[in-house]
Design brief:
Elements lengths: L3 E4 L1 H12 L6 H16 L10 H10 L9 E5 L3 E5 L5 H19 L1 E10 L5 H9 L3 E9 L4 E2 L13 E5 L7 E5 L6 H10 L8 E2 L5 E2 L12 E3 L4 H17 L16 E9 L1 H4 L2 H16 L15 H13 L1 E4 H13 L4 H8 L4
Parallel strand pairs: 3-4, 6-11
Antiparallel strand pairs: 1-13, 2-3, 4-12, 5-7, 5-12, 7-8, 9-10, 9-11
Helix pairs in contact: 1-2, 1-12, 2-4, 3-11, 11-12
C-alpha cells in the first residue's frame, strides 16, 4: 500500500506556483499552468493534473518546452485561423488560441481554428469549458506527438498517441454537456497513476510488448513498453485516426509516423470548431428540445450497480465538490516525483513541502 497525502487546494496552489516559477515563467504563465493542472485534479483527472510536472520539467531541460512562449498567427481569414503554439506551455497557448477563436465566433457566428506545435494541452475539456462559459459549442480533435503508445485495432504495438476528442455544448438553465475522452481505453497518465499507486489496471486496457493481454500499468509507462488499446475496438481506433489526421496532419503538420525518438516533450495539434448556437438555430427551440431530451435520458431507471444516470460533465462536477471540501489525494510516489521535478528546476523541495503542508 502506497501512502497518500491529502492536500487542500490553496496550499497545493501555493506550492505548485512556486515550482512552476522554476521554469522561468512570468506570473501570468505561473497562474495559468498551476490553475489548469490543479483543476484537472479537482475534477478527478489526476492523469492530467500536477503529476504531469515531472514530465514537463524533463521536457524543459531538453528544450522541448519553452517558457513564456505565445501563439503565432500563421493564417487569418476571419473565421478561419491557423496558429503555432511555438512549443509553449499548452495551458498558455491553448488559452490564447481559444480566446481568439471565441472572439471570432462571436463576430462571425463560427470559427475553425487549427493550433499546432503546442506543448501538452492537458485536459482538452478545459478548452471546451472556455467556450461553453461564453455560450458557444466547441468540438476538438487532438493528436499527440510523443512516444507512440496506442495500438491500432488488431495491431500488437503502439503506433500513435491517446489522441483525445472533446465536445462542449451549453444548455440554458442547466449545466452544460462536457464530453472529453482519450480515444484509448485509458489515458496514459492513468497508467502512470496506477503504476505509482502499485495498482493493477482493469482487464482490456493494455497489452505487453509481445502483444499479450496484461493488467500491469508498467506496460504503458516504463520500459519495456507494451501498448494501450483503443476504446471500443475499431470504433475508438477509427476516431483516433481521425484525430491524428485532423489535429495532426491538417492542423499541425505533425503526425506520429515513426518510432519513439526518446525525447520527453509532448506536443499536441488541435483542430477546434467553435459555433455560436444563436447564429445557426432558434435559441428557444434548441434549448427546449435539448432540455427535453436530457431530462428524458437522465430519468432512465438505474440498473444494478448504478445509483443514477449521469450526463457528460456531471462526474467532474461531483469530484470537484468533493475535493474542494476534503482536499486532493496525491500518492507518495507521485509527490516524490514532483519534488524531484522541483530539484530539477532548482527549486527547494523542502519549500514545496512546507507550502503544501506535507510532512515527510
Amino acid at each position: 500500500m502506497v501512502d497518500t497525502h491529502l492536500i487542500h487546494v490553496e496550499p497545493l496552489r501555493a506550492s505548485i506556483r512556486e515550482l512552476v516559477r522554476g521554469f522561468g515563467s512570468d506570473e501570468r504563465e505561473v497562474a495559468l499552468v498551476t490553475d489548469n493542472l490543479i483543476y484537472a485534479n479537482l475534477t478527478g483527472h489526476d492523469s492530467h493534473g500536477i503529476g504531469m510536472l515531472p514530465r514537463y520539467s524533463e521536457s524543459w531541460v531538453e528544450g522541448g518546452l519553452k517558457a513564456n512562449a505565445h501563439i503565432e498567427t500563421l493564417m487569418d481569414s476571419g473565421a478561419l485561423l491557423r496558429l503555432d503554439g511555438r512549443r509553449g506551455f499548452g495551458q498558455v497557448v491553448g488559452h490564447e488560441a481559444m480566446s481568439l477563436g471565441i472572439e471570432r465566433a462571436r463576430k462571425h457566428g463560427s470559427c475553425i481554428m487549427a493550433l499546432g506545435n503546442a506543448h501538452h494541452l492537458c485536459r482538452i475539456g478545459a478548452w471546451a469549458e472556455m467556450a461553453v462559459e461564453q455560450g458557444f459549442v466547441s468540438i476538438h480533435f487532438v493528436n499527440v506527438i510523443s512516444r507512440p503508445i496506442v495500438a491500432p485495432f488488431g495491431g500488437g504495438d503502439g503506433r500513435f498517441g491517446t489522441n483525445p476528442f472533446a465536445v462542449g455544448i451549453p444548455i440554458a438553465g442547466r449545466d452544460p454537456i462536457l464530453l472529453d475522452f482519450a480515444t484509448s481505453v485509458i489515458a496514459q497518465g492513468k497508467a502512470r497513476v496506477a503504476y505509482n499507486k502499485r495498482q493493477k489496471l482493469p482487464p482490456g486496457c493494455v497489452i505487453d510488448r509481445e502483444g499479450n493481454a496484461s493488467e500491469d500499468p508498467a506496460c504503458a509507462w516504463v520500459d519495456p513498453l507494451g501498448a494501450i488499446l483503443a476504446f471500443g475496438g475499431h470504433k475508438g481506433y477509427g476516431l483516433a485516426v481521425a484525430c491524428e489526421l485532423l489535429g495532426g496532419a491538417l492542423s499541425a503538420g505533425l503526425t506520429s509516423d515513426g518510432p519513439a525518438t526518446g525525447e520527453r516533450r509532448v506536443l499536441n495539434g488541435m483542430l477546434t470548431i467553435i459555433i455560436d448556437p444563436k447564429a445557426i438555430a432558434d435559441p428557444a427551440s434548441f434549448e427546449q428540445h435539448a432540455r427535453a431530451f436530457l431530462d428524458w435520458v437522465a430519468a432512465s431507471p438505474p440498473r444494478a450497480g448504478f445509483d443514477k444516470v449521469r450526463l457528460a460533465g456531471e462526474p467532474e462536477r461531483e469530484w470537484k465538490a468533493k475535493r474542494l471540501a476534503e482536499g486532493i489525494p496525491i500518492d507518495a510516489n507521485s509527490w516524490n516525483a514532483i519534488l524531484d521535478a522541483a530539484s530539477r528546476l532548482k527549486v527547494d523541495p523542502a519549500k514545496i513541502n512546507r507550502l503544501a503542508g506535507v510532512n515527510i
